[in-house]
Amino acid sequence: MTLLLTDVTVGDRPGRAVQVAGGRIAWLGDAVDAPRSDRVLAAEGALLTPAFVDAHVHATAAGLALTGLDLHSSVSLREAVETVTGHVTATRGIVLGTGWDETGWPEGRGLTRADLDAVVGDRPAYLARVDVHSAVASTALLDRVPGVTALPGWSPDGQLRLDAHHAVRQAAYGAVDPVQRRAAQRATLDAAAALGIGTVHEMAGPEVSGAEDLAGLLALAAERPGPRVLGYWGELAGRGGLVLVEELGLAGAGGDLFCDGAFGSHTAALSAPYADRPGTSGALRFDPGDLVEHVRACTLAGVQAGFHVIGDAALAQVLAAVGEVAAELGLAAVRACRHRLEHVEMVDPAAVGRLARWGVVASVQPAFDAAWGGTEGMYAERLGVERARATNPFAELADAGVALALGSDAPVTPLDPWGGVHAAVDHRTPGAGLRPFDAFDAATHGGWHAARAEHPAGPLAVGAPADLALWETTATLSAVLAGRARPACRQLLVAGEVVR
Fold this sequence. Notes:
The protein has three domains: 2-45 and 466-498, Urease, subunit C, domain 1; 68-174, Diaminopimelate Epimerase, Chain A, domain 1, CATH 3.10.310.70; 178-450, TIM Barrel, CATH 3.20.20. It contains 20 helices and 21 strands. Strand 8, helix 3 and strand 9 form a beta-alpha-beta unit. Helix 2 (77-90) packs parallel to helix 3 (113-120) and helix 6 (178-194) packs across helix 7 (211-223). The strands form four sheets. Strands 1, 2, 3, 4, 5, 19, 20 and 21 form an eight-stranded mixed β-sheet that branches. Strands 7-8-9-10-11 form a five-stranded mixed β-sheet, sandwiched between helices. The protein is α/β, with parallel strands linked by helices. It is globular and about 70 Å long. The chain is 37% helix and 20% strand.
C-alpha cells in the first residue's frame, strides 16, 4: 500500500509531493512528477514538515495534569486552595496535582501540609511544585512513607525536597490505580498527536514513575497508531539500572537520573550559593565514583547514559565522570554512545567544549527560559541577574557543535512544540537564542539524533521513517518561523500510519 501526499509545501518549496510505503518515505519531488500510488491525499498547498519529537516527557504525570488537578494558573495561595477544594469535592482516592508556584503569590508563601489537611481530610494528597523537584503532601500520605521524617529534605510543614520528596513522590504515584494511569498516559499521547508530535522520549526511573508505569506506557503506545514512545530508565548501573534497559529494549540508561534538583526548589547544585538563600548551594545526589561506574558500564555495553543536571556543580560532576571514562576507554567509545544530559542550564565555555569533544547531547527545554529567565524572572531571583542571564546558552552550544534536542519536560511546562521552537529563538538574553531553522531542526531531527536513531540524510529523505505532520497553513516554513505562528496539525503520520 502506497500513500501520496500531493500539493504540499516542503520547507519553502510549494508544489511538492511525498510518497510513503512500508512506513518510510519512498519518494519526494515535484508534484507533477509524482509516481502512481494506491491512495492520494491532496493537501491543497498545506505545509508538510517532519513530525516533532519531544525529547523529555513524563507521560503519566503530564496526563494527570491534563485530566485532573492542574495548578499552573493559580495566582495566589487562596486560589490554589480553592482549586484543590473543587477537585476534592468531585473526585475520590488519592489527590494528585502539579504546577503551583509561590513566586509572586501575595501571601508570600507556598502550600503547606496544614493547608492540604484542611481540605482533603484523611485522603492522601501530593501536589508537586511547578519544577516537580519539591512538593507538599498531606498527613495521610506522609503516614504511608516510613522513615520519611529522617530523610534529607523533610520539613514538618509538609513541604518536601531532596530524598524526602523522592520517597513521597514514589509513594504517591505508586497509589495511582492502573485504570487512572492508563487514562493519563492515553491523554498525553493524544495531546501529543494533536500537536504534531510523532515521538516522545519518556524519562522514567524508580524515583519518577516506576518500571510498571514505563512498561504499561510502552505497551499502550504499541496498541494503535500514535506517537511512538522511546523509553529511558534513570537508575545507576551499580543499582541494576541496565537490567531494565535490556529487558524492555529502551533507548538508554539515564534521562532523569537526578544528579541534582531544580532552581525553584533551591535543590539544583551550584558552585556558589543561591542569591536569595545564601545558606545553601543545593545538593549533589551521587558520589563521583558512582557516576564514573555508570558511564563506564554504559560505554562498555554500548548503551547511552544520561543524567539530569541543572546546576553548574552537577554538570561539572558528570563531565568529570565522562572525562575519566574517555581517558580510560578512549574518545571513540564515548562518542559512539552519544551520552546525553538533560536541561544543561548552567554551562561555561570550557564545559561547552567538553560536551562537543565527547559528543554529548544537550537535551534542553526552551520554555524554561521563557517562563523563568530574564532579568526579573525566577532565575534572577534565585541566582542573581548575572548568572540568570547566562543560563540556557543555546547559541553558544549550537555554535560549538553540541547536538541539541528540544523537549518540554511535561508536565513542568506544557506540550507545545511550536512554542518551544519560538522560545529557543526569542531567548530572554539577547544573542543566546537559536536561528529559526536551527531551532526547528533541534525540535525534529534533534530528537532522533539524541536517541541515536536518526536517518543519515535527515528526516525528510528517501528511506527515512515517514513521521510527518501536515499543518493548517499554506505559508512556508520560513514564514511560520518568522511570524512565530502556531498552526494547527491537520494530519499526523507515524511510521506511515495516519494517526489523526
